[in-house]
């Protein structure tokens, strides 16, 4: 029996159920164990309660205490610092990593009027949307995906920006009025991907998770997360990153695009490197972004 710890939110439950079903299809018995985190019980701005890490620390504690055997995380909410005794046993196939606009009356970004009220609490989205120069009024929001969409339906906001992956997992893709091109808005590092965490010495669980692994996604998100980790060493700026394995002339290559929001605008760079060194690529692009400052 594999005990899978999950937060209770609709998105977390959808992700956990998806992983549980993949494991059951491989012949494993899986039990879902609900875990409550500070991020779920508090309405305070995330920066005040410790950032997105609040969603994962309770799950990690439960893993280390042997109360659960695996935890399913949205990789974009998983801090990059490694935890002693834990490892990402599998990184499965990724959903579409892009951000989307959910706007009233089916509007796209370019159709929103100057001064239109757009909800997002993410410094990464704010920096990149402001850099577009559309004169949008950006306002911080929190809450689950349903309540954010409801703010548009209720007329409180003209639009919200969300991760396409979250809407896909909740069956709400019909709400999308525009998928944002990464040339305009780069997603968060790891967006759309799941990380399945387990104890590093749990050989049985590591074996069970192995078939869920997607090596190209692992390489891509490793580069994105390394870029973030290297940048955080120097500053806490809004960061977008998106990597992909693409077929080059001499075989597969890893491409990484990065965006760093700063006073005066957003810096963007891209670079490529060998698929087997995502850490080197992430570090190199981060250092290049920092050198430009
Ligand atoms: N910040 C919360 C969060 N964490 C993961 C997702 C969506 C799913 C994903 O990116 O994997 C979301 C919602 C959103 O940003 O719209």
Automatic annotation (TrEMBL):
InterPro entries registered for this protein in UniProt: HemC, Porphobilin_deaminase_cofac_BS, Porphobilin_deaminase_N, Porphobilinogen_deaminase_C, Porphobilinogen_deaminase_C_sf
Co-factor requirement: dipyrromethane
Record-annotated Porphobilinogen deaminase N-terminal domain positions: 2-205
Enzyme class: transferase
EC number: 2.5.1.61
Pfam family name, one: Porphobil_deamC
Catalytic activity: 4 porphobilinogen + H2O = hydroxymethylbilane + 4 NH4(+)
Residue ranges occupied by any Porphobilinogen deaminase C-terminal domain in the UniProt entry: 220-290
Residue numbers of S-(dipyrrolylmethanemethyl)cysteine PTMs: 235
Entry keywords, A to Z: Porphyrin biosynthesis, Transferase
Highest taxon of source: Bacteria
Record note on cofactor: Binds 1 dipyrromethane group covalently.
Subunit structure: Monomer.
Family from the record: Belongs to the HMBS family.
UniProt function note: Tetrapolymerization of the monopyrrole PBG into the hydroxymethylbilane pre-uroporphyrinogen in several discrete steps.
More about this protein: The porphobilinogen subunits are added to the dipyrromethane group.
PANTHER family the UniProt entry points to: PORPHOBILINOGEN DEAMINASE
Protein's recorded name: Porphobilinogen deaminase
The species this protein was found in: Kribbella sancticallisti
The encoding gene: hemC
């Amino acid at each position: 029996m594999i005990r899978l710890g999950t937060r209770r939110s609709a998105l977390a439950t959808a992700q956990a159920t998806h992983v549980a079903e993949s494991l059951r299809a491989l012949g494993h018995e899986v039990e879902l164990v609900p875990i409550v985190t500070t991020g779920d019980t508090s309405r305070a701005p995330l920066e005040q309660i410790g950032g997105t890490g609040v969603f994962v620390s309770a799950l990690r504690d439960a893993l280390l205490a042997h109360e659960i055997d695996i935890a399913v995380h949205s990789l974009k909410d998983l801090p990059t610092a490694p935890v002693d005794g834990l490892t990402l046993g599998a990184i499965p196939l990724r959903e579409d990593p892009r951000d989307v606009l959910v706007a009233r009356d089916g509007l796209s970004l370019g159709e929103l009027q100057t001064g239109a009220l757009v909800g997002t609490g993410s410094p990464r989205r704010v920096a990149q949307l402001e850099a577009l120069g559309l004169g949008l009024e950006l306002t911080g929001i929190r809450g689950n995906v349903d309540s954010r969409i409801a703010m548009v339906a209720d007329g409180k906001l003209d639009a919200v920006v969300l991760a396409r992956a979250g809407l896909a997992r909740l069956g709400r893709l019909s709400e999308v009025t525009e998928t944002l091109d990464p040339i305009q808005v780069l997603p968060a590092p790891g967006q759309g991907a799941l990380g399945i965490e387990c104890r590093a010495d749990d050989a049985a669980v590591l074996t069970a998770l192995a078939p869920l692994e997607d090596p190209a996604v692992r390489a891509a998100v490793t580069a994105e997360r390394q870029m973030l980790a290297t940048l955080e060493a120097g500053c806490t700026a809004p960061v977008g990153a998106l990597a992909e394995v693409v077929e080059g002339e001499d075989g597969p290559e890893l491409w990484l695009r990065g965006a760093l929001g700063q006073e005066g605008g957003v810096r963007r760079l891209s670079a490529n490197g060998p698929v087997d060194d995502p850490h080197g690529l992430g570090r190199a692009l981060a250092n290049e972004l920092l050198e430009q400052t």
